[in-house]
Design a protein that fits this description.
Among the domains are: 124 residues; 147 residues, no CATH class; 126 residues, no CATH class. The chain is 72% helix and 0% strand. The chain is mostly helical. The longest helix is centred in the N-terminal third of the chain and has 80 residues. Helix 13 packs antiparallel against helix 17 and helix 16 runs antiparallel to helix 19. This is Vacuolar protein sorting-associated protein 51 homolog.
Length: 578
């Protein structure tokens, strides 16, 4: 940069330093800044390497030059460089004016020459245009000849196409006549009647589905309606009977409507097609079987389908009622409906295959089983939730010595009793395992102050401090495995047993997670004995209740810091007062 600045401000950068001229033409060789402006000669350019910082060179890069100047030159040198550039600009302007004055006549003569060249060029362009026009005319003539030849071929093809279209048009003209003649035939009339009948059957199916949903809504409203004191609403048997009778009556009415609709056209109803295809495919399968399957899926959806956000869950009583409805369909209703349909719309022996009655009954039974299992899970979860909260919210280490049965245990017995009454309205009693003599002595007064026998005392009131680990292991060896979530049978005893198993299993798992003091263990003793007194009569086997309560007592003792049990006589006295 310093060298460049010196060159710009020295003798080489000054117009006064330029000298010399050419011959008699008056043209002076560019020199100084003007020479640098026009660039070096070819030889000089070949010898000099490219320098992007050379302001007068062909490879000058302003950005590189400015970055280098800013980074390397001080302020004083930059100001000096600015003054030198100003002097160079003024010198270049002076040289340009001198060059213009000296060569004015040459510029004028060059302008005249250019004007003459433009005139000659226009004449040449005109001649070229004429030549192009002639070539275009020749090309147009050739194109017309080619188009004529192509048009001749195209016309021959069009003639053949027109002849083919005429033949097709003649065939189409004959179609309406053929259609009119065919429309009067029996197959055409049967086809029209069949289309109308199928459409009517589809409408009847949708009407049946809408009717069933309306009846179901009435049942839900009746179950949720508040009961004034002293006035009982319709019971579950009445609601079930009304629902079943309404749906069956509507189905029979629909079958009568279909029969009346087809009877209007006696010719169609007497055709073999009607007796075979329509009676089986449209009426039996498309209406009756389709409705029964839809009813089973709809009922099962209350147990299988996830509840929508914000939608109320189905009440347990509705689950129980739908389970009984599907079970009745499996036992008798499906067979009755299919028999009635075959009587009114008898199928032919060689007709299409039909859905067998046992297959349809199996679907109804599966829906009933799923609904009843879900009812047990819902009711068991409700009772289990009460027990869970009662265990999790109590301080079992700092509790006082028990003097009564906890209120939640009384509520559990009350809820189980209410469920027993509810299930007993729709399902049979069921078979219980033969009870022991001890149980029979307790059975006569469920809510009385009878004293329980000493048979269960070892489970709750050992006479001395016990080895909890040994007791737990021995009990597991001799206790039977209890399947908590096994499918229930269609009777009251099985349903109640399933609910009790879920409830006591939840109590057991909650106790296993707590740490108890001496009085906490004794409170578990009292509560367990109270449940044993009243829950055994609801179960199919008293050993189920006894086994789960024994596990609760053993787990409480295992989790107790001071496992000193309460005397059995005191436990009995507290439960009698409760």
């Amino acid at each position: 940069v310093a060298a460049g600045s010196a060159a710009g401000s020295g003798a080489a950068g000054s117009p006064e330093a330029a000298g010399g001229s050419t011959g008699g033409g008056g043209w002076r060789r560019p020199h100084g800044p003007l020479q640098r402006y026009y660039g070096p000669s070819g030889a000089e350019a070949a010898e000099a390497p490219p320098d992007p910082t050379d302001i007068n060179g062909p490879h000058f890069d302003p950005e590189v030059f400015m970055n280098k100047v800013r980074s390397e030159c001080p302020l004083g040198q930059l100001l000096a460089r600015e003054a030198a550039l100003g002097r160079e600009i003024r010198a270049l302007d002076s040289d340009m004016q001198t060059l213009l004055y000296e060569n004015y006549n040459k510029f004028i003569s060059a302008t005249d020459t250019i004007r003459k060249m433009k005139v000659d060029f226009r004449h040449m362009e005109a001649e070229m245009d004429d030549l192009a026009a002639n070539m275009a005319a020749i090309s147009a003539s050739s194109a017309r000849v080619s188009a004529a030849l192509q048009d001749r071929h195209r016309r021959g093809a069009q003639l053949a196409g027109v002849q083919a279209l005429l033949r097709k048009l003649q065939a189409l003209v004959e179609v309406p006549g053929r259609l009119r003649r065919w429309a009067g035939t029996e197959p055409a009339r049967a086809l029209r009647c069949h289309a109308r009948a199928r459409a009517r059957v589809d409408r009847y199916l949708r009407a049946l589905q809408t009717f069933f949903l309306g009846c179901l809504g009435d049942v839900r409203q009746a179950l949720a309606a508040p009961r004034p004191p002293g006035k009982e609403g319709p019971g579950l048997p009445d609601l079930l009977a009304t629902l079943a009778a309404s749906v069956l009556g509507q189905l029979k009415a629909v079958l009568a409507y279909v029969q009346l609709f087809t009877a209007r056209d006696v010719a169609f109803a007497s055709l073999p097609y009607f007796k075979g295809e329509f009676c089986v495919t449209a009426v039996r399968e498309g209406l009756v079987v389709a409705f029964v399957r839809w009813l089973c899926r709809t009922a099962r959806g209350f147990a299988d389908g996830p509840a929508e956000r914000g939608a109320p869950a189905a009440p347990p009583a509705l689950l129980l009622l739908l389970a009984r409805l599907c079970l009745d369909y499996e036992n008798s209703t499906i067979s009755y409906i299919l028999t009635l349909t075959d009587e009114q719309f008898p199928p032919q022996d060689s007709g299409p295959a039909v859905t067998p009655g046992p297959a349809l009954c199996a679907e109804a039974r599966a829906a009933a089983q799923r609904l009843l299992d879900h009812y047990v899970q819902v009711q068991g979860a409700a009772v289990a939730q009460m027990l869970r909260k009662s265990v999790e919210t109590r301080d079992w280490l700092g509790t006082v010595e028990p003097r009564n049965v906890r209120a939640v245990m009384k509520r559990v017995v009350e809820d189980i009793t209410a469920i027993d009454i509810q299930v007993g309205q729709l399902f049979e009693e069921g078979v219980r395992r033969a009870q022991s003599s001890d149980s029979s002595r307790r059975a006569f007064s469920v809510y009385s102050s009878s004293r329980a026998p000493g048979r269960y005392a070892p489970s709750y009131t050992p006479s001395a401090p016990m080895d909890t680990h040994l007791l737990s292991n021995i009990q597991k060896l001799f206790s039977e495995r209890i399947d908590i979530f096994s499918p229930v049978e269609f009777n009251k005893v099985s349903v109640l047993t399933g609910i009790i198993k879920i409830s006591l299993k939840t109590l057991l798992e909650c106790v296993r997670l707590r740490t108890l003091g001496r009085f906490g263990l004794q409170q578990v003793q009292v509560d367990g004995h109270y449940l044993q007194l009243y829950l055994w009569r609801f179960a199919s086997d008293e050993r189920v209740v006894q086994g789960l309560l024994d596990e609760v007592a053993a787990s409480a003792a295992h989790r107790c810091l001071d496992p000193v049990p309460m005397e059995h006589s005191v436990v009995e006295l507290i439960c009698e007062r409760g």
